[in-house]
Amino acid sequence: MASARKRTAILISGRGSNMAALLEAAAAPDYPASVALVLSNRADAAGLARAAAAGVPTAVVESRLFRGDREGFERAVEAELARAGVELVALAGFMRVLTPGFVGRWEGRLVNVHPSLLPAFPGLDTHARALAAGVRLHGCTVHLVSAGVDEGPIIAQAAVPVLEGDTAEALAARVLEQEHALYPAALAWLAAGRVRVEAGGRRARVEGAAEPPPGRGALLNPWPR
Ligand code: GAR
C-alpha cells in the first residue's frame, strides 16, 4: 500500500531557493510530503516560475490588494489551500506576518525557516544584526509557527561560524546553504509524524532523530589552539 504523503503548500514571497530545496527533496518517492501548491503573496516572486517549471500548481494572492485586511488576505489564502487539499503549510521566505487566527487553525501543521539561531535575532536583517552583535556562531532555525513573530517550538537548527571579514551577504550565503539542507529534513520529520510538542507547547522533540556523531557534537569558533 502506498503510504500517504502529506499534501504540503509552500508559501513564498520572493526568490524561492528554500522552496526549490523542498521541491527537490519531495521529488524522492519515499519523501513523506508532496508539494500540492506553491503560493505567493506577490505575483513577481521569482520562485513561482521555478515551481511552475517543476510542474507544481501555483497560486498568487496579492497581499497588496488586502491593505489593512489581513483576515481577508488569509481567507483568500486558505481558500487556495482548501482547493489544493493541503494538510501542511511550509513558509519559505514568506514575508507576511500571519494572524493568531490563521496560526491557531494551522497549529502543529505550520512550519517556518528563519535565518538565525532563534531566539536570537527574530525579525529582519538577521545577518547584519548578527555581525553587529559580534556573535561567533550564527545559523538558521526550522520551527513550528506560534502566534509570536519568529516564535514557536524549534524542530532543528544549524550553526555556521562567523568569519573574519564577513559581510552580511557572505554570511547569508553560508547560512542559506544550511537552510537548504535543514528545511527538507525538518519538513520530513513533521510530515512523518515524528515531531512531538511538549512543555506546554514551548518545545519540540524529534522522535528517532540521530544525534551528532561522536567528536562532531560541538562547533567552536574561534577554534582553540
Ligand atoms: C531565507 O533566508 C529565509 O530564511 C528568510 O528569507 C530567505 C528567503 O530566501 N526568511 C525570513 O527572513 C522569514 N522571516 P528564499 O526565497 O531563497 O528561500
Automatic annotation (TrEMBL):
Transmembrane segments: none
Domain of life per record: Bacteria
Keyword Membrane: no
Keyword annotations of the record: Purine biosynthesis, Transferase
Sites where the protein binds N(1)-(5-phospho-beta-D-ribosyl)glycinamide: 16-18
Region spans: Disordered: 204-225
Domain Formyl transferase N-terminal: 6-187
Site (Raises pKa of active site His): 150
SUPFAM superfamilies: Formyltransferase
Catalytic residues in the record: 114
PANTHER family in alphabetical order: PHOSPHORIBOSYLGLYCINAMIDE FORMYLTRANSFERASE
Job description of the protein: Catalyzes the transfer of a formyl group from 10-formyltetrahydrofolate to 5-phospho-ribosyl-glycinamide (GAR), producing 5-phospho-ribosyl-N-formylglycinamide (FGAR) and tetrahydrofolate.
Family: Belongs to the GART family.
Protein name per Swiss-Prot or TrEMBL: Phosphoribosylglycinamide formyltransferase
Organism per entry: Craurococcus roseus
